[in-house]
Specification:
Elements (H helix, E strand, L loop, with lengths): L7 E7 L7 H11 L4 E7 L5 H10 L4 E4 L13 E2 L1 H6 L4 E5 L2 E5 L2 H11 L8 E5 L3 H13 L2 E5 L3 H11 L6 E3 L10 E4 L23 E4 L6 H8 L3 E3 L2 H16 L5 H12 L1
Parallel strand pairs: 1-2, 1-3, 4-6, 7-8, 7-10, 8-9, 10-11, 11-12
Antiparallel strand pairs: 3-5, 5-6
Helix pairs in contact: 1-9, 4-5, 4-8, 8-9
């Protein structure tokens, strides 16, 4: 990569952020298209988030990704939020449009694209989601428009019920349910961090699973949940595709270009091995 005085800068704000794989896939795409851009990881302490966001304008960055713990707290610091990010209550992509900072959330679109390319179709299906946090909101925003029925489980039942009420503004097909009804659904999605750490318990008892069910985990590694579901003959999907495609859509927002998806995929997946 040849960085010059004209190189456009983007990157990711997080804390911690040293583990991020986003620079790998974005810089591979910039290089493949011969675009004069670079992508850098910025460790931004929560107390300094406001200063970091101001720096996007002051240093004329073309934009930035935002990750934990800043996705919610960045919203009041931006000039405009698109409807999707506003509903979700979280931003993962900022675009500097002539000095105006606009917030987007590409996570939901990324997940839906990962389903599509894996030939997993939601239309007419009953979908069960575990968790009611930001990731759940991002994917539910799309799933409720396509699924026949969408059920949400969360340990904090009131939080699940609030999300169901919000989603029913779009389609009256969202309810809450308990973990004992897993066997009634075509597609089951874990949006919680359970499985990220070694020794984590399973998000639910996998005993009732059937071979005709689909089990997804937004964690971008092969979790114990997916291993157990595979033993039952289920179709399984991890979070790598979502990670890839949310980055693809962010790339398009910053550059106006279609990125080389397979180059981004190879760069990302090679690091995840």
């Amino acid at each position: 990569m040849n960085i010059t005085g004209t190189t456009k800068i983007t990157g990711i704000f997080g804390y911690p952020v040293e583990h991020t794989l986003s620079p790998v896939m974005h810089n591979a795409a910039f290089e493949a298209l011969n675009l004069d851009y670079c992508y850098i990881a910025f460790s931004v302490h929560p107390d300094l988030l406001k200063d970091a966001v101001r720096a996007i304008q002051a240093l004329n960055f073309c934009g930035a990704n935002v990750t934990i713990p800043h996705k919610e707290n960045v919203i009041p610091l931006l000039d405009k939020i698109d409807d999707e990010a506003s509903f979700i209550g979280a931003v993962n992509t900022i675009v500097n449009a002539d000095g105006k900072l606009i917030g987007y959330n590409t996570d939901g679109r990324g997940f839906m694209q990962s389903l599509s390319e894996s030939n997993i179709f939601v239309e007419g299906k009953d979908v069960f989601i575990i968790g009611a946090g930001g990731a759940s909101k991002a994917i539910s925003y799309y799933l409720c428009r396509k699924a026949r029925r969408l059920c949400i489980y969360n340990r904090d039942k009131e939080r699940a019920e609030r999300l169901a009420v919000d989603l029913n503004r779009f389609h009256k097909n969202v309810s809450t349910d308990n973990l004992f009804s897993i066997e009634k659904f075509h597609i089951i999605i874990n949006t919680t961090p359970l499985g990220l750490k070694e020794g984590d318990p399973l998000p639910f008892d996998t005993t009732p699973l059937r071979p005709d069910q689909v089990v997804c985990d937004l964690i971008y590694k092969r979790t114990r949940l997916l291993e157990e579901a595979s033993k039952k003959g289920c179709t399984t999907l991890d979070g790598r595709g979502m990670l890839l495609w949310q980055g693809v859509f962010a790339f398009e927002l910053w550059t106006g270009e279609k990125p080389p998806v397979e180059i981004m995929r190879n760069a990302l997946y090679n690091r995840l091995k």
